[in-house]
Design a protein that fits this description.
Blueprint (H helix, E strand, L loop, with lengths): L1 H42 L7 H7 L9 H12 L16 H12 L1 H12 L6 H4 L10 E5 L5 H9 L3 E5 L3 H10 L6 E4 L2 E3 L3 E5 L19 E7 H8 L6 E6 L4 H10 L7 E7 L10 H13 L2 E7 L3 E6 L4
Parallel strand pairs: 1-2, 1-7, 2-3, 4-6, 7-8
Antiparallel strand pairs: 5-6, 8-10, 9-10
The structure holds 2-acetamido-2-deoxy-beta-D-glucopyranose (NAG) (4 copies).
Length: about 325
């Protein structure tokens, strides 16, 4: 009894310190997020409606989205829209899906090698030239991982869609804003997509920071702003309208972003979804297995329109095929 009592006080102290550490760290992160959110409101999203302002000024909100006001606003702009609600989806694989995922995993390294050597060089431009439907005047393109805007430049030149570019590094956000400041159809937002709202301190890596990832250099000096993909898309009003293309080239963020989006029926509002897979990043948990599961979840609603497995691919909603 006595020795147990002696341990109780140090144990309590350690718990309190641990709690304080976690609490302060979370508070720091949420402060940074608040700053980010206020930037959001100031900049607005001119090309795609000012839905974020709308959400923040009205108190009748559900999951952060004022459905009535949003509906009215969007219907004025885009014609009639219907909102059926975003809810969770069953993400357990059926036995048949499990089998396919197992085969996918068995062939993963072979497919990655084969498809990588086929894609890079002569076929890599398909990720830009594939999306002619974006020429439609009302087409909405969302890109996660804008970097310096090399792909963005091509998308604008080819299609000039309503375009939201997401970039988690502030320095590159500013470069993108400068690059597209004359184009009112382009909006740049300093945020990346992931599983939850968080600020990760990273080290800048790679040529043009293009390899900077939340998975490589934690404990660095540069903040990476990441947001819950589902929540972000809902705040934009996705679910009340369709996104024509969500494209992601975001250094491993694709796993968390896809898993988050595929865990709800929000995926039904994304007509085309394109992503690069970064399966060799250190610090990523089980990338090949997760890729194979994502394939199965995506396959329930979409089918590939081009696919270099484990490299780059694009999927289209079944009703549009
Ligand atoms: C919220 O909705 C209710 C019912 O539709 C309405 O009576 C109320 O005025 C609304 N409040 C605001 C602030 O819009
Ligand atoms: C990817 O590699 C597999 C073989 O590993 C091959 O069957 C498939 O055709 C390749 N895909 C493309 C688009 O080249
Ligand atoms: C934007 O437009 C101004 C005035 O027409 C022009 O001087 C400037 O070079 C343009 N900037 C870019 C980045 O195209
Ligand atoms: C992400 O946002 C959605 C929609 O608000 C929510 O249901 C989900 O729990 C969030 N995920 C996490 C990990 O916070």
């Amino acid at each position: 009894m006595r020795s147990a009592n002696k341990l109780a006080i140090p144990a309590l102290l350690v718990s309190i310190l641990l709690f304080l550490y976690i609490y302060l760290r979370e508070r720091g992160n949420s402060r940074r997020m608040e700053v980010r959110d206020s930037l959001f409101k100031v900049n607005g999203l001119p090309a795609l409606v000012d839905t974020l302002q709308l959400v923040s000024t009205n108190s009748n909100t559900t999951s952060g989205v004022d459905k009535e006001a949003l509906l009215q606003h969007l219907s004025e702009r885009y014609g009639p829209v219907s909102f059926v609600g975003i809810g969770p989806r069953n993400i357990n694989l059926t036995p048949e899906e499990e089998n396919r995922a197992a085969t996918c995993l068995q062939n993963a390294v072979r497919d990655r090698d084969n498809n990588g050597s086929r894609f890079w060089g002569k076929n890599e431009h398909v990720r830009r030239t594939h999306h002619t439907y974006l020429k439609n005047e009302n087409a909405v393109l969302i890109e996660a991982g804008g970097n310096k805007g090399n792909d963005a430049y091509e998308f604008v030149k080819l299609y000039n869609p309503r375009y939201i570019i997401l970039e988690p590094l502030e320095e590159y956000t500013n470069i993108l804003k400068e690059k597209f400041k004359n184009n009112s159809r382009v909006t740049v937002v300093n945020v990346g997509l992931g599983i939850k709202n968080e600020v990760v301190m990273v080290n800048i890596e790679g040529n043009n920071a293009c390899a900077t990832s939340k998975f490589s250099g934690a404990n660095g000096k540069t903040p990476l702003y990441i947001t819950n993909a589902t929540e972000f898309l809902m705040k934009l009003g996705v679910g009340l309208f369709n996104v024509d293309l969500l494209t992601m080239n975001c250094e491993g963020c694709e796993f968390e972003a896809l898993e988050t989006i595929l865990s709800t029926n929000l995926i039904n509002y994304i007509k085309n979804i394109q992503f690069a897979t970064h399966s060799t990043l250190k610090g990523l948990e089980n990338p090949l297995g997760r890729y194979c599961k994502i394939q199965e979840l995506l396959r329930r609603t979409h089918k590939p329109t081009y696919q270099y497995r484990f490299i780059w691919e694009s999927w289209r909603r079944d009703d549009l095929l």
